[in-house]
Amino acid sequence: MTSSCTCCGACCATYRVVFSLDETDQMLDAGVPAELTLKLNSEFCCMCGTDTKPQRCVALVGQVGKSVSCSIYARRPSPCRAFAPEAAGGHGDIACGNARRQHGLAPLAGSYDAVPFA
What we know:
Blueprint: H1 4-8, E1 18-20, E2 37-39, E3 44-47, E4 60-63, E5 67-70, H2 78-82, H3 94-102
Antiparallel strand pairs: 1-3, 2-3, 4-5
């Protein structure tokens, strides 16, 4: 059974994904592929595509809200691993709900109240 979380992708097309350069494959064997990142400074980088408008992570494959996957799921950075930890079980949080609304999707059943997206 596919969860709403793994087929949505709204978060991947809404938020900037910033993380430590230490998480890239230049520092870890199984880290985020450095060629998919944009170096921000001497300590941080972001996923390519999340730093522009419209935002869409370069690792996102498929159509938001229909069927998506992450091309680097096993190697995804910590912000992606930590995002909406209960979403796979059908319980989003405010950030998840806002991302889904921005893409014309209803919040996940059992989600916390979302605030208007600015």
